[in-house]
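Researcher: I've been going back and forth with a colleague about how MOSC domain-containing protein might be arranged in three dimensions. Neither of us has a model we trust, so I'd like an independent prediction. The organism is Penicillium flavigenum, in case that matters for your notes. Sequence below.
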Amino acid sequence: MADQYNPKFGLPPGTAIDGAPRIKAIYLHPIKSCGPVEVDRALLTKSGFMYDRCFAFATKSVNGDDTAASKWRFISQRKNPVMSRIKTELWLPHKYSNLHDPLVQSGGCVVMTFEDPDLPSWTSRVETFFHTGNLFAPSQLSFIVPLDVTATQAKLKTFGIHSRDAKGLDIGGIPSIAAALSKLKKFLGIPADQILTLFKCTPDTLTRTDKNLAPLKHIGSPALHGYTDQQPVNINSLSSVHAVSALLPTENQPLNALRFRANIWIINAPAYEEETWKRYRILPKSNGTQPRASVAPALSVVCRTSRCTMPNVNPETGSFDADTPPPGRKRGKAQPSTTLVQYRTVETGNKAALGYLGMHCVPEDGSLKSAEEQGAGLYIEVGDEIEVLERGTHLYGSTGDDY
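Model: Here is an independent structure prediction for MOSC domain-containing protein. You can compare it with whatever you and your colleague have in mind.
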């Protein structure tokens, strides 16, 4: 995505296309609302891509008088935009890994890195200079989060994600994590009367999707997801982002596509063309050398993505963006939300939507079962092509709330 701003990726609506849409990039977000990880390939499962949104930070108040505040609730960039500056790396075992390494036995780990919120010592300044060549560059702190955690290592607890109750293993007490939480809490500006912890999703804590449902005749069994807001997979088009970017005030251009936190980014499709898809499959076309099932993964498209305020967060600065205020006003309007509301309120399904961009998808059981029968993983890779199987119209919430 380093070249995402290249005009060649911005195909206006209705452009005649030679060839099929292709996957340009794949992103995972191991820790909800923190920095993403770009990968060449990703394993598709019933609940979305492996390792995507499998952790979430949450806080609760230590004030026992406030019952609502004393319950664990997730935190996100909506109120903590600086979370975008928490970098994540995904480390997975390989065939040469030491099988006696505890992290290998834990299935690998996520490494989280953020700026030290305290003034650095001269020792840390020297260390920073050794790595960056800048004596006054902010010092960085890192800590390790194991991917596999058992109930013997952490307790299963309930916490809130928006209006629903989610469950997960509270791993804030694991030494490598506990040691970093006080610093991270300060970095995020969390008040002293709140506790910060990290929850881990498990196969037993997956949630059944109850909104914007895909037909069971296609997906086979009800959709499941971890700590995504509702649906397992999100797909978006660089052409669509370019089209929105062209509508923004000049000072807010170009628009970084990564603000929209999609899993799959496609090219070679006209802007907003993905909004007509109802079903598609991904044809293995990449030159990858790693093994994968000889199956074309099929996904049902269930609805447009109704946007919130998170695209206003600049992932590089960790702050909300706005346009230049007119004379006599101190603050500009939030961007790109203001533009999305004006030009991308293309339906009335969600009254709270700040415009729409991107599509929510659900993996279909048929391709998952075919891969299982082959004893191979259902992988998607950069360079694969999209074959649209069915087209139609979308209205957020039109499928009801029960299968």
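Researcher: What would you highlight for our discussion?
Model: I'd start with this: DSSP finds seven helices and 23 strands in the chain. After that, consider the following. Residues 286 and 333 are 42 Å apart (CA to CA).
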